[in-house]
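Trying the structure run again after the queue cleared.
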Amino acid sequence: MRGARRFVLARRDAGMSTAEYAVGTLAAAALAAVLHQVVTSGAVSGALQQLVERALNAAQ
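Done. Tokens:
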């Protein structure tokens, strides 16, 4: 009986609850928004554009 009870107690905590999924989703969305702002900023956008241009010109 002891082993079965441990299995039931462990089974109850398996996986994430709906609230944990909601918090994880909000955190992922916030991180995506921050990354979008960083990548679309003038300095980073210019650096990325130069990097792509150098890579394309190196192939010629």
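DSSP finds three helices and no strands in the chain. Worth checking whether this holds up in the mutant runs.
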